Amino acid sequence: MKAFQDYYPDEYAHCYGCGRNNAQGHQLRSYWDGDVTVAHFTPKPEHISMPGFVYGGVIASLIDCHGVGSAAAFASREQGGDMDDNPELRYVTGKLDVDFLAPTPLGPELELRARLLELAPKRVNVEVSLSAAGQLCAKGLVIAVRLPPSMA
Amino acid sequence: MKAFQDYYPDEYAHCYGCGRNNAQGHQLRSYWDGDVTVAHFTPKPEHISMPGFVYGGVIASLIDCHGVGSAAAFASREQGGDMDDNPELRYVTGKLDVDFLAPTPLGPELELRARLLELAPKRVNVEVSLSAAGQLCAKGLVIAVRLPPSMA
Q1: Residues of B with CB below 8 A from A151's CB?
Q2: Among A21, B17, B79, B128, which is disulfide-ready with B140 (CB 3.0 to 4.6 Å)?
Q3: What is the number of CB-based contacts under 8 A between chain A and chain B?
Q4: Domain locations in chain B?
Q5: Which residues of B touch A19 (CB under 8 A)?
Q6: What is the pLDDT of residues A13-67, one digit of tens each?
Q7: Nearest Cα residue in chain A from B59
Q8: 0.90 surpassed by complex ipTM
């Protein structure tokens, strides 16, 4: 099954959070699950904050990458195709808000789920939840904006 | 010169963003600069998003750790001492909001500056800016909350 990030061309696949060409990165992979999207990630031992808990910056990173990848997928679906049909729909993060609702235990696989809040011509708003062992630990809002020419 | 993070006891110094005992982490160090606080960090080549630019998750991580460390420093100053005098003033991230204002170039040292917005008994609100080569690239709000007993 092809992840959203597998559609990114090679020159855009270096991202520390989700780039398949970044050996040191998290290599997050996001998929459809009906009308929402899902990704799974098991933090490494070094992704610690306090002993026993996941570092908030890693949580923010996962929400960021799952949100932006999902934004491209939501926008492609709206155009009536998959991401291969809409290579111009590349997004970057304009705004990232994360609420840490409960300490996230370090050890279990984390699940990220995203749903579309709003789709505008140059912007996609996505809500992302992060759970560990069935408990909601963090919620995020990602405002993804179309890749500006200055970054392309 | 002692960084805020140098006051964290060894058992709280594993954080991936700022723990001196985390060899794989960013090891961010924050200091006073008059009434505000400052930290510097040079991203590694793997901290990439698009070619030439810094990954947003690393930017969020730096804002997070500089904000939380600064929260402890601001709270200690309010108590009339340095962080050694107030070991109970340990904080974790309750909320992290980041606005990405301009693409952050990968290469130059980044500068983080934080100022106190509000200090409450169990919460400190901090505003953090991130600049590269003198240009403001991101702004963040960190709501730091006193370390809950469940994490201690």
Answers
A1: 50, 52-53, 103
A2: B128
A3: 139
A4: 4-146
A5: 48
A6: 999 999 999 999 999 999 999 999 999 999 999 999 999 999 999 999 999 999 9
A7: A57
A8: yes
pLDDT at position A69: 97
User: Do residue A55 and residue B61 have CB atoms under 8 angstroms apart?
Assistant: yes
Q: Give per-residue pLDDT as tens, A111-144.
A: 999 999 999 999 999 999 999 999 999 999 999 9
**Which amino acid makes up residue B54?**
V
Q: Which of A15, A112, A142 is the best residue to mutate to test the B interface, defined by the most B CB atoms within 10 Å of its own CB?
A: A15
Fold of the domain spanning B4-146:
Thiol Ester Dehydrase; Chain A (3.10.129)
| Sole residue written with tokens 């050996």 | A23
Place of tokens 């959070």: A17
In the block, residue with structure tokens 């990165």: A25
Tokens of B114: 């934080």
Q: How confident is the model at residue B148 (pLDDT cuts 50, 70, 90)?
A: confident
- Determine what percent of chain A is predicted with pLDDT higher than 70: 100
User: CA A18, CA B45: separation in Å to the nearest integer?
Assistant: 15
HEC secondary structure over chain A? CCCHHHHCCHHHCCCCCCCCCCCCCCCCCEEEECCEEEEEECCCCCCECCCCEECHHHHHHHHHHHHHHHHHHHHHHHHCCCHHHCCCCCEEEEEEEEEECCCCECCCCEEEEEEEEEEECCEEEEEEEEEECCEEEEEEEEEEEECCCCCC
